[in-house]
Amino acid sequence: MPVFYVEKENYKKVKSIVEKDPFVRHTVYLKEAKTLGLDKTGYYLYLTAPTKIIEEAKEKLKELANLVEEEESNKVIEAIKGEEEKVEEGVGFLFGD
């Protein structure tokens, strides 16, 4: 799945786009780079969706976000998955799983 880099000044516009159909029906992560432990000042958008939706995202975001290279993309995805695992562990701890 592709990962996009979003400059700070484009964050609100990108957020507005991904909060609408068809993107809102899929898993959308829009995270500040620093919170993922990455040394950038903007945001990363990771969208898990069918190819058709990904292509639509590329078209709608072409002026607002840039696709990142595979190595950077993998770092972002790993950081997001790590964050999700920590949340799941915390919920499991709270509810005794």
Topology:
Blueprint: E1 3-6, H1 11-18, E2 27-32, E3 43-48, H2 51-61, E4 65-67, H3 70-95
Antiparallel strand pairs: 1-3, 1-4, 2-3
Question: What can be said about this structure in brief?
Answer:
Helices cover 46% and strands 20% of the residues.
Q: Which features would summarize this protein structure in a list?
A:
4 strands; 3 helices; 97 residues; four-stranded antiparallel beta sheet; 20% strand; alpha+beta; globular
Mean pLDDT: 90
- Uncertain ranges: none
Strand percentage lies at 15-25%
For the termini, the CA-CA separation is 30 Å
Pattern of helices and strands = EHEEHEH
How many DSSP E strands?
Answer: 4
The count of helical stretches stands at 3
Question: What structural class do you assign from the helix and strand content?
Answer: alpha+beta
User: How many domains, in number, for the residues?
Assistant: 1
Please tell me what the overall shape is: globular
Share in helix: 40-55%
Biggest pleated-sheet summary: 4 strands, antiparallel
> What would you call the quaternary organization?
single chain
Task: Evaluate the radius of gyration.
Answer: 14 Å
Query: What's the arrangement of strands in the largest beta sheet?
Result: 2-3-1-4
